[in-house]
Task: structure prediction
Amino acid sequence: MHRSLLALALTAAGAAPAAAQVLPHPVTVDRLPNGLTVVTAPFDSPGIVAVYIVVRVGSRNEVQAGKTGFAHFFEHMMFRGTERFPAEQYERLIQSLGADNNANTGNDRTCYTTVLPAAALPTLIDVEADRFRNLSYSVEGFQTEAHAIHGEYLTAISDPGLKMEETLLSMAFTTHPYGHTVIGWLEDIDRMPEGYDFSIDFFHRFYTPDNAFVIVAGDVDHDALLALVTEKFGDWDRSLDAPEVPAEPEQTEARLQHVDWPGPAPRRMFAAWKAPAFSTTTVDSAALDVASELIFGETSDLYRRLVVEEQKLLTLDRWGTMDRDPTLMVLDAKLAESFSFDDAVAAFQAAIDAAAGGEVDAAHVEEVKSNVRYGLPMALETPAQVAGFLAQVISATGDPTALDAYVERVGEVTPADVSRVAATWLAAAHRNVVTLAPAPAPAAAGSEGGAP
Result:
């Protein structure tokens, strides 16, 4: 799960400059003849750049039965090296550059991140171009990484949150591959060591220039970067061969599942509603983000009453609403012992229904919109944050300019838009709830039926 751009903006909101724009300098977008998109984002960070390479493949693309979690697995394989730079040499070289590198996988993309001195950029682009064109690994190396993923899953599933997420997604999505988590199902992870040939096919189908974006933010010269990327990546000549992603049927009734957790854990709930695919071509995505903040944010009546005053909710967080396809807006709540799951759901839905019925404070709408306008620029303090924001909108839209367009759409949101999206998307029929509590202790032997 991820936070929306609006949530990130509000986290950073505070004292702001008189005039705000999302990025301090214009972004330049170039597309090479082979389809690779180069995004140059100058930022005031003398001597430092962030290089984020986004490949638009994630759990969304795992439509083949038995292959969930493979995009995340392949993220690991990308560090296995090439004939020119084997894994150990690659790692030593990255360290010698003074670079900090990592990667992450989501629903819609895999992103490879490096922050390093600007003077080392030519070397890094050379190494990365080789990696993305000529990745090479043995069967043994592949199987070693598969076993590591298995251990990663077993560690993650010890957290109640992953079990809740698995339950929520599989309930909410009956057809679309958003129905499984990014790490995948355990039975598929168990079979990963057998998937070497599939991995080679996966690399050639998805790791293609027309499915990739090279983002460089920081102390960077556009012309020099474009010439460098063209030289090193220009002969990368594969083409995307992605299978069709099945659409999710409309949900017509509320769904509910409970998880008995085998150990101590706070009583917790995921309450989720269907949400539109992230888009800046209409106001709906921005309006739903504004609606979520108005109804459930820290300045909302519901939050003040249930979290601050009555303390029936120990925490109330929100996730989602920024995916390539229709997705979920999720509330993540931890409940006091005295507050029932049913009462929490009823309170959430009542607040939504009130907004859908027109109970929307116009002044509060304008306050949220203003915080977004000023909060997003304030959230961008480093080249990595700039590159990360751009990667987020690229993964959902494929459009590096969508960050500015999103802020424009937020500025257009009206109270009527808030009521409309609350009624359309957050209706009870679109609701999915997962509750979790410690499993009841087993009854002691002979405790039933009275005294002998």
